[in-house]
């Protein structure tokens, strides 16, 4: 048993040369809701290699689904939103740490590669949204697009569901929040500017690292760091408020960049920033562990131990109030650096509140005259 860790690490180093390019997860983990497990055997992979064949396709598949509702009530006390909506389930960005991976299991897929390669498309999202916010009992409250998966992921370029939803928000003068790490949001600058003129939109741009090498490993199909910073700049120049999400902080990978990240987003016009701590809940712990031992074998054990130290000895932390903040000395150092960054770069800045007063007048699609 004493030799097992040595051979395991040696094997992971050899496997690091065979990373699936363009993907975060390197395998499909079992779905906890399914009785049977699909497993790709090593002898089958070796056969495919010798025959010059692919064991499975790495192409992205778009699958239409037909939900009855689109707006979700968020019950978690750790998330700064009450309502969210997601035009897409699954996300081609492939961020290895993404908490949304677990949601793919509810649809019968894996939280691993399936999450990145099988994208579920909700074409009826604009109509469902309109029905929801026109309901007589609905009171305006910020609905956040991308509470789970990125509404500006690559699929949006083809299906344009997010843009159609923004047009619904504008028509009914309803407040909307957006979370994204894709520069594609600038395509909809015209609609965003109109929403901003009524104080109806706030944008959250995720910037995880200033290193392109780190970004490509953590978030393989996302916009480059420079494009994200430029997106913050363009939005801010057009008076559209931007909060930078410096998240997640992963000790041993990007946690040392907090001050530099805060300065960069401030210099490009962000009104505020927020951080969250990495939390590898559910199947993500297994997916992340497999990935880091292949993608960063030299630091894998160190990073995993640091994450455990910040979550009470486990990489899977479900405790409300702590799971997104972490605990212990390392986590405290990260939060102290964030406080210092706010003093240095965001002293006189703040993210504005959205307008909830207009919607009631526009529930019928036009302002009431009487």
Blueprint of the fold:
Elements: H1 4-15, H2 42-51, E1 61-64, E2 71-73, E3 83-85, E4 88-89, H3 113-117, E5 118-121, H4 125-134, E6 143-145, H5 155-159, H6 161-171, E7 176-180, H7 189-197, E8 201-206, H8 212-218, H9 225-237, E9 242-249, H10 258-267, E10 272-277, H11 284-295, H12 300-309, H13 328-345
Q: How would you characterize this protein structure?
A:
This protein has 370 residues and is α/β, with parallel strands linked by helices. It has one domain: TIM Barrel. It is 36% helix and 12% strand. It contains 13 helices and ten strands. The chain has a seven-stranded mixed β-sheet with strand order 2-3-6-7-8-9-10. It has a three-stranded mixed β-sheet with strand order 1-5-4. The longest helix has 18 residues.
Bin the helical content: 25-40%
Provide the β-strand percentage band. Answer: 5-15%
- Give the strand order of the largest sheet, numbering strands 1, 2, ... along the chain: 2-3-6-7-8-9-10
What is the 3D shape? Answer: globular
Look at the helices and sheets and give the structural class: alpha/beta
List the secondary-structure elements in sequence, H or E: HHEEEEHEHEHHEHEHHEHEHHH
Number of strands: 10
Note poorly predicted spans. Answer: 1-17
State the CATH topology.
TIM Barrel
- Overall CATH architecture: Alpha-Beta Barrel
Q: Tell me the number of helical segments per DSSP (H or I, 4 or more residues long).
A: 13
Query: Would you state the CATH class?
Result: Alpha Beta
Mean pLDDT: 90
CATH superfamily: Aldolase class I
How far is the first residue's CA from the last residue's CA? 80 Å
GO molecular function: iron-sulfur cluster binding; lyase activity; metal ion binding
Domain Radical SAM core: 74-314
Protein name: DNA repair photolyase
Pfam family, one: Radical_SAM
């Amino acid at each position: 048993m004493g030799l097992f860790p040595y051979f395991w690490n040696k094997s992971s180093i050899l496997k690091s040369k065979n990373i699936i390019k363009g993907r975060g997860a390197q395998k499909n983990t079992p779905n906890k809701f399914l009785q049977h497990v699909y497993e790709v055997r090593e002898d089958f992979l070796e056969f495919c290699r010798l025959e010059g064949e692919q064991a499975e396709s790495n192409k992205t598949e778009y699958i239409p689904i037909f939900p009855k509702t689109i707006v979700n009530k968020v019950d978690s006390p750790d998330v700064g939103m009450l309502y969210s909506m997601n035009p897409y389930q699954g996300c081609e960005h492939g961020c290895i740490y993404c908490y949304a991976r677990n949601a793919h299991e509810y649809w019968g897929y894996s939280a691993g590669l399936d999450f990145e390669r099988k994208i579920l498309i909700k074409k009826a999202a604009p109509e469902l949204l309109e029905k929801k916010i026109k309901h007589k009992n609905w009171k305006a409250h910020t609905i956040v697009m991308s509470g789970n998966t990125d509404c500006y992921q690559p699929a949006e370029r083809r299906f344009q569901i997010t843009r159609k939803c923004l047009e619904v928000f504008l028509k009914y003068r309803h407040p909307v929040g957006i979370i994204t790490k894709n520069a594609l949001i600038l395509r909809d600058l015209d609609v965003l500017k109109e929403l901003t003129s009524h104080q109806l939109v706030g944008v959250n741009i995720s910037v995880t690292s200033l290193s392109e090498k780190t970004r490509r490993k953590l978030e393989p199909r996302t916009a480059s760091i420079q494009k994200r910073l430029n997106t913050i700049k363009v939005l801010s120049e057009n008076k559209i408020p931007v909060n930078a999400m410096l998240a997640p902080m992963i000790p041993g990978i990007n946690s040392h960049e907090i001050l530099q990240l805060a300065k960069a987003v401030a210099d490009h016009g962000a009104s505020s920033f927020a951080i969250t701590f990495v939390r590898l809940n559910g199947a993500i712990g297994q997916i992340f562990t497999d990935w880091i031992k292949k993608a960063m074998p030299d630091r894998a054990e160190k990073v995993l131990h640091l994450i455990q130290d910040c979550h009470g000895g486990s990489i899977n932390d479900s405790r409300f109030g702590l799971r997104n903040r972490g605990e212990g000395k390392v986590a405290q150092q990260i939060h102290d650096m964030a406080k210092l960054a706010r003093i240095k770069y965001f002293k006189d800045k703040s993210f504005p509140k959205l307008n909830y007063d207009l919607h009631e007048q526009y529930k019928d699609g036009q302002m009431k005259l009487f």
